[in-house]
Design brief:
The complex is a heterodimer of chains A (about 325) and B (about 350). Chain A is α/β, with parallel strands linked by helices. Helix content of chain A is about 45%, strand content about 10%. In chain A, a hairpin with a 2-residue loop joins strand 5 and strand 6. The termini of chain A are far apart. Chain A has 13 helices and 8 strands. Chain B has about 350 residues and is an alpha/beta fold. Chain B has 2 domains: about 180 residues, Thiamin diphosphate (ThDP)-binding fold, Pyr/PP domains (Rossmann fold, 3-Layer(aba) Sandwich); about 130 residues, Rossmann fold, CATH 3.40.50.920. A 7-stranded mixed sheet of chain B has the order 3-2-4-5-7-6-12, with helices on both faces. In chain B, strands 9-11-10-13-14 form a 5-stranded mixed sheet, with helices on both faces. Classes of the chains: A alpha/beta (about 325), B alpha/beta (about 350). The interface between A and B is large, with 44 and 36 residues.
Chain lengths: ~325, ~350
């Protein structure tokens, strides 16, 4: 069983200087991400969302913490577990639900599905379903910023499998050689679909050595602690802007649900990880641990108000999306 | 209009340079792009004028094509140059799964991906199975990418001017045998998917790229020898395919010859055959292409693999019902090595 190298409920003391409003804003983003994914999780078995969906429950702190440090004109690309970076970059939830439900008002007009989301006006350039592509595309967006002499950066969100692709190493090498302003966000949840990276042959796979070997700055961060994610990614982004060099952050996290779908692996009797392991990692919940910190600060009432508000709002949006129109024949051959 | 004579290779350079002058988002990337040969001389001029807009890279076709696609999505206009079409196989994932579909799979909401990919079809001598292929037949199956195979400097000029302005991505394939083709520079600038390069009434040849050069040589000989006139339709674009022009040519000719520079089976020849037969059942159509085997390296086998002018001549004469047996036509491919 894989255990976290970090302590449960690490303290959030670095966030103490933050105003109540700012802290509640962070919690808003965390809880909002979680609740939206939970709505999808709960509704998915109703067979109305007919698109293979990779839920990111348990990994919220990474996209929330990184995106809090980004500007609207920065460029984000994501791999197939795309909902969280999309939500964190303020992509419309109505458009997300519509896309999952195959509606014309979806972020991709219903033509993309869960793995092909976009929200260009929010800097979310797109997500792709082929492993490694987000890494290459983000580097390309970074190259474009460099050639255009813009100060913006690009960000790639990706997981274990994506990093294993040859494309990733070609890209990292290129970014190092060409000084590309890209932040590589490696969400290490210990599994490439069902293949663990901490035992067997894969335990010798060492991204740190490879990344450092290519001359790229590498950081390892507790991806379940919003404070660590926020400050380390802020540091990384400042570093990229100051030095015009790429940075690679390995965030340690854990995916609670199955690779693709709304269920727990143990409930489906999949054997690659145990219920005990999932229960252990649930104690590192990025939303609950931060909530605990805020409750200690006496924000009880604000939190329950905020949660109620989000629950109501998201449920209403989902209902609205259900009623939204489907794309029809005249949409089939547009935007080829 | 200038009446200067310009070569195919120079025209590539001139077309890229003039577009680079107008659009500062255009840049060139690929392996070996700043080597002394500059891709058969075609990049001499752009490199002279804009050396800083050349992004030389390690060998990384898959990564590079994905990166360049990302730059195109973010507002740039990359030209991805490849010395051999064969190496584009390493970039098939971004070509097929990103560039071709980017617009459609986000329903136009994620911007365009206006990359221009160029590659040389490497037939010289002895290039063998993996340095001489052309994937125009595969690329033409895609929906979101233009596929151009310019034959003459005039085609080159029009294709580059179009490809570097359109929102769609384009693949431009240059046959190695064309780089020294020369033409007076007084041609029309209007872009067209295909053009009739020779007008006749007795036979129509529908072809492209190096096939158009061979067809010209063959039809000139037939005209001189027998006074029979042949129409040649030069397809500059295979995707989209100029169906209107193909059908117009087919309508006016009883005999039609299709000439591909790839395997005959399962490619553009079959597609054009179907288009014509669906509309005109009684047309007599012959197809010429490579045998369905990899390209061999040995000279004696190469001669059997690539349809020579003699092969085209014989079949054309047969279609024209000319007794052709005693006539020989010079073989065409005057390549000088080493590679």
């Amino acid at each position: 069983m894989i255990k976290s190298p970090y302590k449960i409920n690490k303290n959030f003391s670095k966030l103490n200087p933050f105003s109540k409003k700012n802290l509640l804003n962070i919690y808003h983003k965390l809880y909002f991400s979680r609740f939206v994914e939970e709505v999808i999780q709960n509704e998915y078995p109703n067979q109305q969302m007919k698109t293979p969906t990779h839920l990111g429950i348990g990994q919220e702190a990474i996209s929330v913490g990184v995106c809090l440090n980004l500007k609207k004109k920065d460029a984000i690309f994501s791999h197939h577990r795309s909902h969280l970076p999309y939500i964190s970059s303020d992509g419309s939830i109505y458009k997300l639900f519509c896309e999952l439900l195959g509606k014309k008002n979806g972020s991709s007009g219903g033509k993309g599905g869960s793995v092909h989301l976009c929200s260009r006006s929010n800097g979310f350039y797109g997500s792709t379903a082929i492993l490694g592509q987000a890494i290459g595309l983000a580097a390309g967006a970074g190259l474009a910023f460099k050639l255009k002499k813009k100060k913006n950066i690009s960000v790639a969100f990706f997981g274990n499998s994506s990093l294993e692709e040859g494309l990733s190493f070609e890209t990292l090498n290129f970014c190092s050689l060409k000084n590309i302003p890209t932040l590589f966000v490696y969400e290490n949840n210990f599994y490439s679909t069902e293949m663990p990276n901490y035992k067997g042959d894969m335990k010798n796979f060492n991204p740190q050595k490879i990344v450092k070997g290519l001359g790229i700055k590498y950081l390892k961060v507790d991806g379940n602690n919003i404070s660590d994610v926020f400050f380390k990614s802020k540091y990384a982004i400042d570093y990229i802007k100051k030095n015009s060099r790429p940075v690679f952050i390995e965030f340690i996290t854990y995916r609670w649900l199955e690779h693709c779908g709304p269920y727990y692996d143990y409930a489906l009797k999949r054997y690659y990880r145990t219920k005990k392991e999932v229960m252990y990692w649930k104690k590192f919940c990025p939303v609950a641990s931060f909530k605990k910190f805020l409750i200690k600060k006496g924000f009880n009432k604000d939190i329950s108000l905020l949660e109620k508000k989000i629950n109501k709002k998201v449920n209403l949006i989902y209902k609205k999306a259900l009623k939204s129109k489907k794309p029809i024949l005249k949409d089939l051959q547009t935007n080829v | 209009m200038s009446k200067k004579i310009i070569s195919y290779s120079e025209m590539i350079g001139q077309a890229i340079t003039s577009n680079m002058k107008k659009n500062n988002k255009i840049f060139i990337s690929g392996l070996e792009i700043d080597y002394s040969s500059k891709v058969f001389g075609s990049l001499n001029k752009p490199f002279e004028e804009f050396p800083s807009r050349f992004v030389q890279t390690p060998a990384m076709e898959n990564g590079l094509c994905t990166i360049l696609a990302g730059s195109a999505i973010n507002g740039m206009r990359p030209i991805f140059v490849n010395n051999r079409c064969d190496f584009l196989l390493l970039a098939f994932d971004p070509i097929v799964n990103i560039i071709d579909k980017w617009n459609y799979m986000f329903d136009g909401n994620a911007g365009n991906c206006p990359i221009v990919i160029t590659a040389v079809i490497g037939r010289g001598w002895g290039q063998g199975a993996t340095h001489s292929q052309s994937f125009h037949n595969f690329f033409s199956r895609l929906s979101g990418i233009n596929v151009f195979l310019p034959t003459f400097p005039s085609d080159v000029s029009r294709v580059y001017n179009y490809a570097l302005k359109t929102k769609k991505a384009s693949i431009i394939l240059h046959h190695r045998g064309l780089f020294k083709i020369k033409e007076k520079q007084n041609f029309s600038k209007k872009f067209c998917l295909s053009n009739i390069i020779k007008k006749g009434k007795d036979l129509a040849i529908i072809t492209f790229s190096y096939g158009s050069i061979q067809s010209l040589q063959v039809s000139n000989k037939i005209e001189k020898k027998f006074g029979r006139k042949i129409t040649i339709l030069n397809l500059v674009s295979l995707n989209p395919l100029d169906k209107t022009k193909i059908l117009r040519v087919a309508k006016n000719h009883k005999n039609i010859l299709l000439l591909d520079i790839d395997h005959d089976e399962g490619g553009i020849n079959d597609q054009i055959f179907n288009i014509i037969k669906t509309n005109f059942v009684n047309k007599i159509i012959k197809k010429i292409g490579y045998k369905k085997i990899p390209a061999p390296a040995a000279e004696s086998l190469e001669k059997l693999y690539y349809p020579s002018n003699q092969v085209i001549y014989d079949i054309a004469c047969k279609l024209l019902q000319i007794n052709h047996k005693k006539n020989k036509i010079k073989t065409d491919y005057n390549f000088v090595g080493p590679y």
